[in-house]
Structures are given as structure tokens and as C-alpha cells.
Amino acid sequence: MVVPLQNGIDATERLGRIVGEDAVVVGITYVSSTRTAPATIDHTANTRIILGEPGGGLSPRAEAIADVLRRAGVDVEVHPDPLVPLWEKFVGLSAVAGMATLTRLPLGPILACPETHEGLFAAMEEVVAVGHALGIAIPADCVDGFRALVRSLPPRARPSMAVDLEAGRRLELESVNGVVVRLGRDAGVPTPMNVAIYAALKPYLNGAPALP
């Protein structure tokens, strides 16, 4: 059984195409960690995991996975509709990661500039609109919640995708902003902020592009 904990909303679907849909559940994690060296992760805060069935509802296998994780000391919740918390997390993650990577700035200066501040929350609203078009019951106050959350974060906070760009590593762009653009296009929902972020960062998808 596979419990994907990657950033984004499409990991369950992508893994299902490889190992079979019946072998994958939805997973969401809330964790603070830093990559300090190759193959070395510094875990700096407690981990919380939400998991559940892709089609919704509770199941013995989801409860069994949760029980194993709880015995290992992990805070776990089995959710009857895990796509909702998956998309809720993604609303903030995709916008903050995209804007911070695009601007090469930490969160403080992004919030201090009216234009980037507006762009950040416009990107969030686009994700909510796409989710609603796909039938995901993202709460109406989701973006307002992130307005309060981002103001509480350290001004020097930077998402992992921005750190990867600076280090010349491959970006999670396709699963962070590209998927918003693609799903929005398919659903007929405009996503201009995410389109701009995606287009500007696409040349860096596989690391810093080589100059001729």
C-alpha cells in the first residue's frame, strides 16, 4: 500500500497509473524539515498526516495504515473526504511556492509589496476556483485563513521550491503550478496568475538552463 506525501494534488493519480489505483490512498502531511546534505533531512517539528480513500469514505485499510503510523508516534487522522484537506493545503502551498520562487524572495518582502501581496492571494483564489469547478468542497473561507497564516510566519520563510531553484535543482513546478494551469484550462477556469508563474519558471524545470 502506497501513501504519497509529496506536495501537490496529483501524486495519488500518478502513482496509481504505475502501481495500480487499488494500491494507493490519499496522503497529506504537515511537517517542518530541511535538507541539510545529500540524503540527509533535518526534521525540525512534529509530523501530522491525514490519509483516506481517493473515492471518499472510511475503510479498514486506511485505519490499518493509520494504526501502524500511530504506533510509530505519528499524529494521524483518517479523513472521510481526503481530497478536501489535500486541496486546502494546496491552495496555500502552490501560491506561496510559486510566488517565492518566481520573485526569488522570502515571504516578508512578498507581503510588504502591494503588487506581489495581491498576486499571492490571486493565485490562491485561482486554485479555489479550479477546485470548486472539479467538485472539491474547499471551504469558502480557505483563502482568508491563509491570509492570517502567512502573516504569522517568519519573514525569512522560504518554500522548498525556491530553495531548489537557488541551488540549481529540478523544480516541483509541474505538480505545484503546472497542474493548476492544466486543470483550469480543462475546466474552463481562467488561472492567469498561475499561468504567469508557470511560464516564467518553466525554463528552470530541470535546473538552471544552460546558456548557448
Features:
Rossmann fold, single chain, mainly alpha, three-stranded mixed beta sheet, 2 domains, globular, 212 residues
Tell me what you see in this structure.
With 212 residues, the protein is mainly α. The chain has two domains: 11-78, 3-Layer(aba) Sandwich (Rossmann fold); 83-204, N-(1-d-carboxylethyl)-l-norvaline Dehydrogenase, domain 2 (Orthogonal Bundle), CATH 1.10.1040.10. Helix content is 53%, strand content 11%. The protein is built from nine helices and five strands. It has helices at residues 11-19, 60-71, 83-103, 107-112, 114-133, 142-152, 160-167, 173-187, 192-201, and strands at 26-30, 33-37, 40-43, 48-52, 75-78. It has a three-stranded mixed sheet, sandwiched between helices. It has a two-stranded antiparallel ribbon with strand order 2-3. A hairpin with a 2-residue loop joins strand 2 and strand 3 (40-43). Helix 3 packs parallel to helix 7 (160-167) and helix 3 packs across helix 9. The radius of gyration is 17 Å and the shape is globular. 33% of the residues are buried. The mean pLDDT is 93.
Quote the average pLDDT: 93
Main sheet overview: 3 strands, mixed
- Poorly predicted runs: none
Q: Which fold does the CATH topology of the largest domain refer to? A: N-(1-d-carboxylethyl)-l-norvaline Dehydrogenase, domain 2
| Domain module tally | 2
Task: Give me a quick take on this structure.
This protein has nine helices and five strands. The chain is mainly alpha-helical and 212 residues long. It folds into two domains: 11-78, 3-Layer(aba) Sandwich (Rossmann fold), CATH 3.40.50; 83-204, Orthogonal Bundle (N-(1-d-carboxylethyl)-l-norvaline Dehydrogenase, domain 2).
